[in-house]
Design brief:
The chain is an alpha/beta fold and 707 residues long. The strands form five sheets. It has a six-stranded parallel beta sheet, sandwiched between helices. Strands 11-16-15-12-14-13 form a six-stranded parallel beta sheet. The chain has a five-stranded antiparallel beta sheet with strand order 20-19-18-17-21. A hairpin with a 4-residue loop joins strand 19 and strand 20 (684-688). The longest helix is centred in the last third of the chain and has 18 residues, at 574-591. It is globular.
Length: 707
């Protein structure tokens, strides 16, 4: 059967690029498919052409993809075109499923039973938690355990010997020690995890030519979908299975590679012709999903990336509204705006965000207002994260300032210069009716005068903390009680504290926030049970492969999305550039989920500047707060950093300063970026100078940083 006859027989309507891909049936072929270009249709149609047009036995074709649901969907798509009987004769498998079969075959060959598969991620988490506690003798939050699981997956998806464990960082733990202890525990229990399946299958295929030959003879035709998400070791397994005949059809798009944290290897698509000499590289560039303005904006945006193959996405669809910048002042106004959209929502609208944390204040607001929404179960790691636990523990310490266990978890994080010996001595001396722990330390002869003053100041903060609204209390803990400096010194992400502050805006007291967090944790673990609701909340990663009539991108600001603020200064490392390019790919994937409308939330607050938004809307300045006053231009991040550094040089001991909240004072001491200021009312406070200047909190007498 000729190709034209094949198309006519099955009523196929393919564009020229799709036709070329379906007919590329010899040798190694890489098909680079832009979003919405019909890649799955092309893949299953090509399989149909191999079998029905060219007479290839269906049992000799192996099609691999990333998830069980994707394999099931692909089989269903094939059955719809060419019939379920033929579909049942084809192998649609996950790569892990193939590896499991390789391991089972090795069992029969050597006469030994392989390790059992640790299928339950809950059991894996429990094992990791047990190991961490035995190594550190400390409580390990759920969020940390999940971070360890992700790091383990990353290491095991790279080729053996390609990863320096000492370079893998997981906050709060010694990851190399945990990793080695975890693998030892698996071996002792005769277990393997899902990622071990890949490593064991790779070693088996290299070590046992008989097994490799059997697979190569059984499946001379290989098809691989979502190749941009395939890891190093998975690509190595595919290379072994392809053998010398190399009848390989690889489908993917490096512009949509967003799983670097799982060791996804889009570089394999860049070097395809080197790995497979004589390979063809074909393109699908026609987008059938989105309107022309959305496609044009997304294509222009992704062209900022340099590590990509040149291609141009074109829209098959018609015109529609141009992508819209929705301007609000800050994140709190953003949640209120989105809640209003949800309340009035009658058409399919998806709000997409980078991390689950972003959705929590919005979910909280929707739940309080009784506004329906649809959301899958959200990762609840936020509630057990170390930062969230620290801040809520400070609130609990304010409720019981004699709680020794809480104090020993917190004292070194509040910048009072208290030693462990002094803290333990205060705990030992503290009685239920006597002075508080901080009062004992303020009177301790072993502490310096500075530390005593700090302890008195912290006690004053605790005294006032319970009397104010919850968001103000969180702000006090982070910005005035030293905890923000602790986060900054350790390079920890302060976004958790910002989310907690946003949640506190709806609570009259810090005690109310503690209660609400428990309720909210239960809500997000359960997920929304309103499957027909048109208002949808989703991470960008979870939305991959899906599409919606209207997409709203929230939290679009440097440090949030993208997670890493892009640097325009010299000296940027290769790793930084790779991370930034993946953040652009993530944003590109989010943009191309939209069929008809794309909205991007944009903030007027200066510290929420968005370089991504600036690329999308280069001619649009944020709206002016007052029509009679021209808004100053936003400095780029590098210029702002240079401006702050220059201004900081004038902040020396003896300088007369003025704080936006506390008024005039004298800078009495400076150690690096940390300054001490005595105000006119006699109070002494401590600040991180870069943070304070960046927020516009300080001016020098006779000076002003921003005119």
């Amino acid at each position: 059967m000729t190709f034209d006859q094949f198309q006519a027989a099955y009523g196929l309507c393919l564009d020229p690029q799709q036709q070329a891909a379906v007919q590329a049936v010899d040798g190694p072929v890489l098909l680079l498919a832009v979003p919405g270009s019909g890649k799955t249709t092309v893949l299953v149609t090509r399989i149909g052409y191999l079998v029905l047009g060219l007479g290839v036995a269906p049992e000799s074709i192996l099609t691999m993809t990333y998830t069980v649901s994707a394999a099931r969907d692909m089989k269903g798509r094939f059955a719809a075109l060419f019939g379920p009987e033929l579909a049942d004769r084809l192998a649609f498998r996950t790569i892990n499923g193939v590896c499991s079969s390789v391991i089972r075959r090795c069992e029969r060959l050597v006469g030994q039973q392989a390790f059992s598969l640790l299928e339950d991620t809950g059991r894996q988490a429990a094992l990791i938690g047990e190991i961490c506690r035995s190594l550190s003798r400390e409580y390990i939050p759920e969020a940390t355990i999940k971070a360890i699981q992700t790091a383990i997956t990353y290491v095991k998806n790279r080729l053996p010997g390609q990863t320096d464990l000492s370079q893998i960082e997981v906050e709060g733990v010694d990851f190399p020690a945990v990793y080695q202890a975890y693998n030892q525990a698996l071996r002792q229990r005769r277990l393997m995890d899902y990622d071990d399946q890949l490593g064991y299958a790779f070693q088996i295929l290299r070590r046992y030519p008989q097994i490799l030959g059997e697979w190569q003879n059984r499946y001379p035709y290989l098809c691989v979908d979502e190749a941009q998400d395939t890891s190093q070791i998975q690509h190595a397994i595919i290379r072994l299975l392809a053998g010398q005949q190399v009848q390989l059809f690889l489908v993917g798009d490096e512009d949509q590679s967003i799983y670097g944290f799982r060791a996804a290897c889009p570089q394999a698509l860049h070097t395809f012709e080197i790995t497979y000499p004589g390979a063809k590289v074909l393109l699908l560039e026609q987008n059938y999903r989105s309107t022309r303005p959305i496609v044009a904006s997304a294509d222009r945006f992704i062209r900022q990336n340099h590590n990509r193959r040149p291609k141009q996405m074109r829209a098959a669809g018609g015109d529609g509204p141009i992508p819209r910048a929705v301007e609000v002042y800050d994140r709190q106004r953003q949640y209120q705006y989105l809640a209003k959209v949800a309340q009035d929502c009658t058409r399919e609208t998806a709000v997409l965000y980078r991390d689950n944390d972003s959705a929590l204040p919005l979910i909280d607001l929707l739940e309080r207002s009784g506004i329906p929404y649809r959301c899958r179960q959200v990762d609840s790691g936020f509630f057990t994260h170390r930062i969230v636990r620290d801040i809520t523990n400070v609130i609990r310490l304010a409720q019981d300032p004699r709680d020794g266990a809480l104090f020993l978890e917190l004292y070194y994080k509040l910048g009072a210069g208290v030693s462990k010996v002094a803290a333990e001595e205060a705990v030992r001396r503290c009685t239920p009716e006597g002075p508080t722990l901080l009062e004992l330390l303020a009177g301790s002869p072993t502490l310096s005068p500075w530390s005593k003053r700090q302890c008195r100041g912290l006690q004053t903060h605790l005294d006032h903390l319970l009397e104010e609204r919850a968001d103000k209390a969180v702000y006090r803990i982070v910005h005035f009680m030293g905890y923000g400096d602790y986060l900054e010194e350790r390079g920890m992400d302060a976004n958790k504290a910002q989310i907690l502050e946003a949640l506190g805006a709806s609570e009259a007291t810090p005690a109310g926030l503690l209660v609400r967090l428990t309720t909210l944790e239960e809500l997000v673990r359960r997920g929304s049970s309103q499957p027909d609701c048109p208002f949808i909340l989703s991470t960008i990663h979870s939305s991959k492969g899906l599409e919606y009539d209207r997409v709203i991108l929230m939290d679009v600001a440097d440090g949030l999305l993208p997670k890493l603020s892009p640097s325009t200064r010299g000296g940027q490392t290769v790793e930084d550039e790779e991370a930034l390019e993946e953040e652009r790919r993530l944003f590109y994937v989010a943009m191309t989920r939209a069929r008809k409308e794309l909205w991007v939330m944009r903030f007027r607050r200066p510290e929420l500047f968005s370089s991504f938004s600036a690329v999308l809307f280069p001619q649009q300045e944020p709206q002016k707060k007052s029509p009679t006053r021209k808004a100053p231009p936003k400095p780029d991040p590098a210029a702002l950093a240079a401006q702050l550094a220059a201004a900081a040089k004038d902040y020396i001991p003896g300088a007369q300063v003025c704080h936006a909240r506390f008024g005039p004072g004298v800078l009495t001491a400076r150690e690096g970026d940390r300054i001490t200021v005595r105000f006119e009312d006699g109070t002494v406070k401590f600040f991180s100078l870069p943070t304070a200047l960046g927020m516009g909190q300080f001016t020098l007498e006779g000076h002003r940083l921003f005119p």
